[in-house]
Design a protein that fits this description.
Number of strands: 7
Largest sheet: 7 strands, mixed
Strand content: 15-25%
CATH topology: Rossmann fold
Order of helices and strands: HEHEHEEHHEEEHH
Structural class: alpha/beta
Number of domains: 1
Strand order of the largest sheet: 1-7-6-2-5-4-3
CATH class: Alpha Beta
Radius of gyration: 15 Å
Distance between the termini: 23 Å
Bound molecules: adenosine-5'-triphosphate, magnesium ion
Shape: globular
């Protein structure tokens, strides 16, 4: 199971938040976006329909993106200009190999000082992307609209944001 695997892999416990509606997941995305910086890479995992795109919609709206945000099914990569950051939105489900992510120059693009990258099905592209990143796993809960978001802070730049994330995601908790 992905959660058990991730928990074993990282030293520090995830920050967790719960959602009981798409609107709540959008709010969590918005709260997260407030802490996004140029160069950030966010990998979002979860089964089909988990709410990965809904989370990205909340992030984009908070960054001032006005156009609709949808899964980058055909384009592989959507580019959204926000007021403070450019948001690149990829869907690794469509990538035939992590090398394809490198071909798309995602890691390079995200180093331009004004861009953050979010990748749905991010675990599939992780090998081609920087080790310092945020991993978010969205798990379904008991009720149809219940979700738990586990935020794994991979690397020093994200570990350094643990306290602000805990303060900024109102329902966040978890050990540590
Ligand atoms: N708490 C919730 N958070 C997010 N979405 C929810 C929630 N409850 C119900 N939903 C519904 O689940 C669906 C999530 O769709 P979304 O496209 O975001 O999934 P996805 O993880 O991106 O799927 P895919 O792997 O196909 O890209 C939407 O129809 C949304 O309304
Ligand atoms: Mg999606």
């Amino acid at each position: 199971m992905v959660l058990a695997w991730l928990t074993r892999m990282v030293a520090s416990p995830p920050v967790t938040a719960s959602s009981d509606s798409p609107g709540r997941t959008r709010s969590l995305g918005a709260a997260l976006a407030a802490h996004l910086q140029p160069g950030d890479v966010v990998l979002v995992s979860g089964e089909l329909g988990a709410g990965k795109t809904v989370l990205v919609q909340g992030m984009a709206a908070a960054l001032g993106v006005v156009e609709p945000v949808t899964s980058p099914t055909f384009a592989l990569l959507h580019e959204h200009q926000g007021t403070r950051l450019r948001l690149l939105h990829a869907d690794a489900w469509r990538l035939s190999s992590p090398a394809e992510a490198v071909d798309l120059a995602l890691a390079e693009e995200v180093g331009d000082g004004r861009t953050a990258l979010v990748v749905e099905w991010g675990e599939l592209a992780a090998a081609a992307l920087p080790g310092d990143h945020l991993r978010i796993l969205i798990e379904p809960g008991q009720g149809e609209e219940d979700r738990t978001l586990h935020l794994f802070l991979m690397g020093p730049s994200w570990e350094g944001r643990r306290d602000v994330l805990l303060a900024g995601l109102p329902t966040a908790g978890g050990p540590g």
